[in-house]
């Protein structure tokens, strides 16, 4: 079976920089009892985020992108963050549903949009575990392996976890109805990367004229929390991009802002690479 992710190695000399896009895929082979229409499922797609950060290998970074859809398996959740209401029976281990799964957005999504269930019927425990083993486990193994390899080689590693967000929160979000900033960058209120790293990213984006929020309404989730340890040189931050900057949210189509934004993100990646080279030199 093909890997459920794509991996693009650095084009030249490698830096200990890993950029990942966990929600930009749409491909799966399973036949599932879907209830949500395709347009509702697409609202969870981080459309074109893999393309927006495609410059990462050119600056020495490694780019990891999911091929599978977020509505099916959300790797940015804990593996046991499973809503019992979605499973027809008991999983073979204790589940730990969080507030996210309570709002329909666990590792296996129950809701595509407020009041719009993903599935017409609960999943069997066997199917749930199959999905996790087929998609979740390989993605996490790839990301954790890359971070460990770079940290072992350089003594430090920097990780940027890339997402897009709706321009306004909805009833499944903590900021329901609120107009969002252009970017939200997160480090778990300081837990997942150094203040200097998140400040570098914030100041670079603000220098382009963007409105940047920090740790609200997103604080960062599993992919940065699971592997970060800034005290020991493992720095992870999450970036959320307002979709209105680069696409028509209703039609899922890029507009003229895409090229402008892509150019700015290319420059951001160049700035991050320069920051990493300087940090390693010290």
UniProtKB/TrEMBL annotation:
Record-listed E.C. numbers: 3.5.1.68
Taxonomic source organism: Cupriavidus necator (strain ATCC 17699 / DSM 428 / KCTC 22496 / NCIMB 10442 / H16 / Stanier 337) (Ralstonia eutropha)
InterPro entries reported in the protein's UniProt record: N-FG_amidohydro (IPR007709)
Protein name listed in UniProt: N-formylglutamate amidohydrolase
Any Pfam family hit: FGase
Hydrolase recorded as keyword: yes
Enzyme kind, highest EC tier: hydrolase
Keywords: Hydrolase
GO MF, one annotated term: N-formylglutamate deformylase activity
């Amino acid at each position: 079976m093909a890997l459920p992710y794509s991996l693009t190695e650095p084009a030249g000399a490698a830096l200990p920089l890993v950029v990942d896009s966990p929600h930009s895929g749409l491909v799966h082979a399973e036949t599932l009892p879907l209830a949500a229409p395709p347009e509702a499922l697409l609202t969870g797609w981080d459309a074109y985020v893999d393309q927006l950060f495609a410059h990462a290998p050119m600056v020495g970074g490694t780019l990891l992108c999911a091929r599978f859809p977020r509505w099916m398996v959300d790797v940015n959740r804990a593996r046991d963050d499973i809503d019992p209401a979605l499973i027809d029976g008991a999983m073979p281990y204790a589940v730990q549903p969080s507030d996210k799964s309570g709002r329909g957005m666990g590792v296996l999504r129950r809701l595509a949009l407020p009041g719009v269930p993903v599935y017409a019927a609960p999943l069997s425990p066997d199917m749930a575990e199959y999905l996790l083993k087929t998609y979740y486990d390989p993605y996490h193994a790839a990301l954790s392996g890359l971070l460990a390899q770079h940290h072992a080689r350089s003594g430090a590693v920097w990780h940027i976890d890339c997402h897009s967000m709706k321009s306004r929160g909805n009833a499944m979000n903590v900021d329901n109805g609120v107009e969002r900033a252009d970017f939200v960058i997160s480090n778990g209120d300081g837990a997942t990367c150094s203040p200097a790293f998140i400040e570098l990213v914030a100041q670079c984006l603000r220098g382009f004229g963007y409105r940047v929020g920090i740790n609200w309404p997103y604080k960062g989730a599993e992919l940065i929390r699971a592997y970060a340890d800034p005290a020991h040189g493992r720095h992870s931050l999450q970036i959320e991009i307002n979709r209105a900057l680069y696409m028509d949210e209703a039609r899922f189509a890029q507009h003229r802002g895409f090229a402008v934004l892509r150019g700015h993100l290319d420059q951001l990646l160049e700035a991050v690479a320069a920051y990493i080279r300087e940090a390693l030199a010290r």
